[in-house]
Amino acid sequence: MSPVVILTALDVEYQAVREKLVDLRPHRHPQGTRFEVGRLAAGRCQVVLAHVGKGNLSAAVLAERAIAEFRPAALLFVGVAGALQAHIALGDVVVATHIYAFHGGTDQDDGSKSRPRVWETSHAADQIARHLHRTGYWARDLDPRPNVHFGPIAAGEVVLNSRRSRHAHWIDDHFNDARAIEMEGAGVAQAGHLNRALPVVVIRGISDRADGTKEATDREQWQQRAVANAATFAAALAEELSTEESTTRSTTMPETTRNIATGNARVGVQAGTVHGGVWITPETSRPTNLPEALADFRTRLSQAWADGHLDESTYKAAEAELVTVDQALETKTPDRKNTLMLALKKLRGLVGDVAALAAELTVIIALAQSLS
């Protein structure tokens, strides 16, 4: 399973993400960059964490370094930002749909003209992030629960703390749909673009309003509160992106297969791309309802742990997701099915390396999808 790289610019941002990780170990790049590698405490996703410092240039260089070193499934940038729109509250989370590099332009006799660069978040990553937001499960432990906003983020090389400055007017004139402003998103977006469209998602917690009140909001510790919310969303998104990557990799087969059976050997199945689950056992042995399938899965999960195919921490995390599945099945709330599907997908990510368990979960998910 490929890791997810998470980059931060400030110490407070780094620490907020680090608190979500366990089993941390340092990783030193030959050029001296220090990474920490661990896994999410609430899941199985492996995470590579790095501190890149302020600015798009350093963010781009170290993002490229992390991509080359770890070949991640996705790259997330997590930090704070200033809100550019009045309806976005302190502590809310903004997930970028586009990144504007707003400093691009030309100065002529008739005035300044904008020549921005724009990077769009990949469709698949955006869809996963929106689904995560719709379920609301990611924020179950947060009180109060922040709002999540999707939209463009402006990235430049200045800390904007005014609504009357030249930069403020420039942004309002040319990028008035931007939800927030920050200093690193353009760098990491460019690094992702240069690496075969690696999914890059910029996630920002709103710590100020970019209106001259930053000193006051910093004193009130809005940076810590805002980035804690962003880190919580990022951790849930990382788990989803990792699970998606693992599932895609495990279910994708070459379009052309070569039969190498010789002598008296028999070929049971020869196929290219297979969509859905494949059962080699007789049809009568396939579970016919969700409770039956879950009961059978629990037995096989316990056996896989006893046989050493799963470590104890993974086994316990899988059991925790099964408890969430049970609770979702017992409730009649409108988001019951979303909660159920999210837990099953996390479960699939946890046991994805055990082929038999992954195959059973494919069937369980199919049964869950048929629920009303």
Automatic annotation (TrEMBL):
Q: Name one Pfam family in it.
A: PNP_UDP_1
**UniProt-recorded Gene Ontology molecular function terms:** adenosylhomocysteine nucleosidase activity; methylthioadenosine nucleosidase activity
Gene3D superfamilies listed in its UniProt record: Nucleoside phosphorylase domain (3.40.50.1580)
Q: Which residues form the signal peptide?
A: none
Q: Name one GO biological process term.
A: nucleoside metabolic process
The UniProt record lists the Nucleoside phosphorylase domain at: 3-237
Listed under GO cellular component are: cytosol
Q: What is this protein called?
A: Nucleoside phosphorylase
From which source organism is this entry?
Answer: Nonomuraea pusilla
